Amino acid sequence: MRAASPFVMQQHGSFTIDTKGRTLEIIAHAAWNEQTSMQFKHAYMALAQDLSSAPWACLINLLDWELGTGEILQVGQQLNAWSFEHNQRYSAIICGTSLHRQLIEKIQEPTRSIEHQYFTDVISAQNWLRSLGLYSKSLELHGGGK
Predict the structure, then answer these.
(1) Are 58 and 94 in contact (CB under 8 A)?
(2) DSSP assignment of 100-130, as one string?
(3) Element (H or E) spanning 47, and its range?
(4) CB 41, CB 75: distance < 8 Å
(5) pLDDT at residue 103 in the model
(6) In terms of CB atoms within 10 Å, which end of the chain has fewer, N or C?
(7) Which of 82, 83, 76, 71 has its CA nearest to residue 109?
(8) CA 122, CA 140: separation in Å to the nearest integer?
(9) What is the rounded CA–CA span in Å between residue 97 and residue 130?
(10) Which helix (H) or strand (E) holds 90?
(11) Long-range CB contact pairs, 34-41, < 8 A, 24+
């Protein structure tokens, strides 16, 4: 008789997340599964906590993202609510398809208090956040983020 082996699900898809001024800059890659969603949630909350003393923003680049499993919706809604409670006030979302936008709008439904703007290119999204004084190339957590 064979011994039962534990089933381990490997992460599929990836992301990069970094702080640029008072903005979390997120780039999603490939299709995400539950493991990727949970890893993202933990990384996001850890970085966002450092920004929560004053209004901040997210720049979310979905141009290389292929959607994912159903857990994405629940994790996204949880993060959206948590983010608003922790002073997020703006999101610049770069979408390549209308399907991406529809999913993001569904995630946003419970907390429409964050101002969301949609873009088709990175430069326009960065410029909008820069005009709000929230985006910069260098890390400026305590200097106002200009």
Answers:
(1) no
(2) HHHHHHHHHTT-TTSEEEEESSHHHHHHHHH
(3) helix 34-49
(4) yes
(5) 73
(6) N
(7) 76
(8) 20
(9) 24
(10) strand 88-94
(11) 34/9, 34/69, 34/71, 35/9, 35/10, 35/11, 36/11, 36/12, 36/68, 37/68, 37/69, 37/71, 37/72, 37/75, 38/71, 38/75, 39/11, 40/15, 40/75, 41/75, 41/78, 41/79
pLDDT in tens, the chain (146 residues): 555 545 444 556 889 999 999 999 999 998 888 888 889 999 999 999 999 999 999 999 999 988 676 677 777 778 888 999 999 999 999 998 777 777 777 767 656 678 989 999 999 999 999 999 999 875 444 344 33
DSSP for residue 137: S
Q: Is 35 helix (H, G, I), strand (E, B) or coil?
A: helix
Which residue type sits at 120? Answer: T
Residue type, 36: T
